[in-house]
Write a structure and sequence with these properties.
Helix content: over 70%
Low-confidence stretches: 1-46, 133-150, 240-254
Number of helices: 7
Shape: rod-shaped
Radius of gyration: 49 Å
Number of strands: 0
Largest sheet: none
Mean pLDDT: 66
Strand content: under 5%
Structural class: mainly alpha
Length: 576
């Protein structure tokens, strides 16, 4: 706004300065353009020099006008580049949202796996509870592992719950960190939005100022041409007839060239001031272009970092997919072992009659088994309470995650309107990396727990239909992970292509900057030359003013001599 008001005042001043000499020169009549030959002979070289200087200044103004047109064209291309970058940032935001959705699906699959593990643990606890034994059923069982299996199952369940508790604590810490990052992201987005609005307003005002400046230059050029034509007309000596060589007592006849020279000097001063203002505006536009180029370079660096993070995320997805494949194989092995155990248990139940005579030998083992069963029951009750507490904590964490998801969605919508949305993308990529790391840790824990359950399930039966259902769910999870990897790979390739396109745009902007710098140097040199020519013209005008004063003195002397001669002639005529 300040630059607009300054430009408006400058245009008004130039217009007034240019019209004033024209008005003064319009009062000069045809009689005043005729001279007696002596004074115009002295004024002609100075007037011709002034015309030449005016032509030089006119050419300098034409060069400045061309440079301003080039700068305005570059300023017009900058908003298009910004719009293109904005569209690409929106596409990156959409890809980050899809990656977040895929991560949520992976978490859901892991949650289902955890629920299945809990169901297996509950079955272990049910099998660990001591069953009432009838007096006729107290017979010997030669399988020692049958008494130790419940204790092992309880121990495995306890270790699994401890691991789950630790993972919940880590999840709480990560949620707090994500909340802090989301708050920081919102503040940054608000700041970037304000800066973008200011930059847009500045670009719009610069375009309007350039249009006004071009109009003012055209008007000034037209006024300069009119002034040159009048100076040329005044510089040409008029033919004087023999009968017109008489004395003209009007002083204005000698002051007309001085007025023309004064008008030229005032017009040149206004032109010099306009050139200085043009140089200042050129410097301001160059500074804004440099700022925009720096912003584009920063975006390029952030985009390269984003491409690297996407590549690392793809590698991690490969690792997760391989881990899921291994888990599927282990699940199939467990199913085969369960089938073998079921057949083996049926074979072991046949020789029950042979174990009746060994009841006296296993009395102590039954007592120990009852004590172990009581301990296992107590431990199971404690583990049940801990499991309920964990479920409540998980529900609270799920609620917090939903709230954070809503906040992140709002942040994504706000970031779509800013120029520095790469910070939000980096945060989401960091969250994706952390989620993948947590998924990898949970898969490792699940693998260890399955290895522990494999030993315990050798002595127990399980529901074959549930295992088949678990295998089907695992297959679905693998399918989702495969789709996630394909989408991430496509996004990474698209990001690489976009990075190459940005490098080409940056090279073009660098070339533009070099051209603009050279044009600015030429404009400054032309302004300096114009200033020197103005000083020379002022010196010549001062010399012309001195000669005009001498001509006035000579005119006064001639008038006095002619007056004396007229008086002498009159007296002689009277005497005659």
């Amino acid at each position: 706004m300040v630059l607009q008001s300054r430009l408006s005042s400058r245009v008004g001043t130039m217009a007034g300065t240019a019209f004033a000499p024209q008005a003064k020169r319009s009062n000069v009549g045809p009689q005043e353009q005729r001279t007696n030959g002596a004074v115009p002979a002295r004024q002609l070289p100075e007037t011709t020099t002034g015309v030449q200087e005016a032509n030089t200044l006119y050419r300098a103004n034409e060069e400045l006008k061309k440079r301003l047109q080039d700068i305005s064209a570059e300023a017009a291309t900058l908003p298009q580049t910004l719009e293109k970058n904005q569209k690409e940032r929106e596409e990156s935001t959409a890809r980050a949202s899809s990656e977040a959705m895929e991560l949520d699906r992976l978490r859901t699959a892991l949650e289902q796996e955890r629920q299945q593990r809990q169901r297996l643990e509950r079955k272990l606890q049910e099998m660990a509870v001591p069953q009432p034994v009838a007096p006729g059923d107290q017979r010997f069982d030669p399988r020692p592992g049958r008494l130790t299996a419940p204790a092992k199952a309880v121990t495995a369940a306890r270790e699994s719950d401890s691991a789950l508790f630790r993972s919940n604590e880590e999840l709480n810490k990560q949620i707090q960190a994500v909340s802090a990052e989301a708050a920081t992201l919102r503040q940054t987005l608000e700041k970037n939005q304000k800066e973008r609005e200011e930059l847009t307003a500045r670009a719009s005002s610069a375009g309007m100022e350039l249009d006004r400046l071009r109009t003012a230059l055209e008007q000034e050029c037209q006024q300069r041409q009119r002034l040159e034509r009048k100076l040329q007309e005044m510089a040409v000596p008029q033919p004087v007839a023999p009968g017109d060589q008489r004395f003209d007592p009007r002083p204005e006849r000698l002051t007309a060239p001085a007025k023309a020279v004064t008008a030229v000097r005032e017009s040149d001063s206004a032109l010099f001031r306009s050139n200085e203002e043009l140089n200042k505006q050129l410097q301001a536009v160059s500074a804004e272009a440099a700022t925009l180029r720096q912003a584009l370079e920063k975006k390029q660096n952030e985009r390269e970092e984003l491409a690297g993070r996407i590549f690392s995320g793809g590698m991690e997805l490969d690792q997760v997919r391989s881990a899921l494949q291994q888990a599927r194989q282990q699940r199939q092995q467990l199913e085969m072992k369960l089938q073998q155990m079921t057949a083996h248990q049926a074979e072991l139940e046949k020789p029950a009659a042979e174990r009746d005579h060994l009841e006296s030998d296993v009395g102590e083992q039954l007592i120990a088994a009852k004590a172990a069963a009581e301990q296992a029951q107590t431990a199971c009750q404690e583990e049940a309470r801990r499991s309920r507490r964990f479920e409540e904590e998980l529900a609270s964490l799920q609620k917090q995650r939903d709230e954070l998801s809503g906040q992140l969605v709002m942040a994504q919508q706000a970031a779509a309107e800013t120029q520095q949305h790469s910070t939000g993308l980096e945060t989401r990529l960091s969250e994706t990396s952390e989620g993948l790391e947590r998924a990898r840790i949970e898969l490792e824990q699940e693998r260890q727990q399955r290895q522990q359950l494999e030993t315990n399930l050798k002595e127990m039966t399980a529901n074959q239909s549930e295992l088949q259902k678990l295998a089907a769910e695992r297959e679905q999870m693998e399918t989702g992970s495969r789709e996630q990897w394909n989408a991430t790979e496509a996004a990474r390739r698209e990001e690489c292509r976009r990075s190459i396109r940005f490098e080409e745009e940056m090279a073009g902007l660098q070339k533009h900057r070099d051209e603009l710098s050279s044009q600015l140097a030429l404009a400054q040199q032309a302004a300096e030359e114009s200033k020197q020519r103005k000083e020379e013209l002022e010196n010549r005008l001062r010399e012309s003013a001195g000669e005009t004063e001498r001509a006035k003195a000579e005119q006064g002397r001639l008038e006095s001599e002619l007056g004396g001669q007229l008086k002498a002639a009159k007296s002689a005529a009277e005497k005659a």
